[in-house]
Structures are given as C-alpha cells and as structure tokens.
Design goal:
Layout (H helix, E strand, L loop, with lengths): L2 H16 L39 H9 L8 E9 L2 E8 L5 E3 L8 E6 L6 E7 L6 E10 L2 E11 L1 H4 L3 H10 L1
Antiparallel strand pairs: 1-2, 2-3, 4-5, 5-6, 6-7
Amino acid sequence: MTRTKGFVFAAMVTIAVQAPVQAADGFDFSEHRVDRVFQGKLRLPDFEGRDKDFAFFKTRIANEMKEGVTFAGEYSVVQFGCGTGCTSVVVANNRTGQLYDFPRGGESNQGLTLEFNVSSNLMVARWYTDSSWETCVFESLLFEGGKWIAKAAFASTGDDICSVGVLEGVAKVRDF
C-alpha cells in the first residue's frame, strides 16, 4: 500500500468515526441484491494460465468452490490463514472459474472477519489495526464487475464492539 492510499483510508476512517452511522450507511445487504444465483456446472480456475498466481492454494480453492456459491450470486469466498492473526481471501467465480483478490487481509488487517451472503454483492469486513487488537475497523465493500469498491468505514475500540460478531458490532455503533 502506498503512503497516499493509507492516508486517504485513514482520513475516511476518521470521518466515519466522527459522523453517526445511519441505517442506510452502506452496511445493508438488501440494498445491494443480485438478480439470480448461479446453479450451472462449476468451472474451476485455470491454475496453469490466467490464475497461476493462486496455484499454491489450488486444493483449498477448488474444495471451497465445490461447496457451492456463497457470495454475490456466483462466487465462492475462500479465506485461509497465513500466520497468527493473518488471513488471505480469494473470491472465485463458480461460473467462469476466474479468481479475484480481496483488498484486505495479510499482516496489515489482523483478525480479518467477513460477513457476506449469496444474494448480495456487499461484503462487510472487520479487522484490527494493530497486533494488540485494541482498535478495530468495520468496512463495507461492493464487488462489481470484478472490482472492489469501498463504501463506508469506521473505527472503534473496546471489546463490547470489536469482539462481537461483525454485524453485531456494526449494529452497536449504529445504536450510539
């Protein structure tokens, strides 16, 4: 991440902390519904060509895809550990086999936890900003046309918000 992007994100989080969270704040799955859910034949990624960068995780990705569509009507979300507090996420298109990186995870987004569903292209993420897990960030992202669009984000502290489920934490901030 470049310094500029980090600064822009930090500014966005600061603004979100200062403004009250409203009901239509970008965390509502029903506002981002998909038209249909893919039920055709699964197409696995091309690990020898287009998706070769993900070949190391071939078995994990294929197994998750075989479980069926879990996100945005035609995708499977694959999350796997990469160390203590570290996770990586890949989004796999069950119809085309194409793989997409998720923009959060790794060492920079400790304890990454996701909420998503098959009927919406919205993904809600929570992660901690530091290794002591004192400050958490909640963020909503839309997945459109193979691109991730950050919609809303806010930071919080305290176990009563950061240690509960992702959607419960968002709801608690809404109640303030």
